[in-house]
Predict the structure.
Amino acid sequence: MNDISESAASNEAVEWIVDDAPVAYDRALTIMEDRVAAIHANAAPECVWLLEHPSLYTAGTSAQDADLIDPERFPVHRVGRGGQYTYHGPGQRIAYVMLDLQQRRPDVRRYVRDLEEVIIRTLASFNVTGERREGRVGIWVDRGGGREDKIAAIGVRIRHWVTFHGIAINVEPDLEHFAGIVPCGIKPSGENGTKLGVTSLVDLGLPVTMADLDVALMAAFNEVFED
């Protein structure tokens, strides 16, 4: 676990940490729980932790059993964050965001919208237009021809006004692994016959590295949360 260069982070109250090797999900949960408690106790600074996980599925508090299509493919972790089933794995940047909203703005809806804005601005750095969709969690890309693909997921939990869990942006994961679930409960056919799927930056033809994504993500985070 390594600190990100402080010269790249203008939001000085927030500690940025990057893990270069995949982090086991249970270990990540334990570390987050401990950090959230420390932030609440004013014993540690706010933190954004950037990492990848080994391939796995997570089930949020709204997960439906029928949406787990292939339960034998990867381990399934049931967690306390909001949302439904999500895939995590190599090539996907996870950002676990641990902020004290009591010291910032105690507004959960605004916080979620700010996370969406961080993703949208990050994608814009690579000339990708990420969009919100009413009734659909996450950020979407219009592929044309009546097709829209999800490129980023959001799942948050808040305890004593301290946030944890966060966002996942698809850089270059194996998109076939999403076939083992109904991602976030979104069926392949959406409103008005729109075809719904999953994409990534590399799938869109952009040779973006994880390091490239991290730089853009940090800049977007600082813009949004300093505002």
User: Anything to note?
Assistant: The longest strand covers residues 147-159. DSSP finds three helices and twelve strands in the chain. Residues 3-10 have pLDDT under 50 and may be disordered.
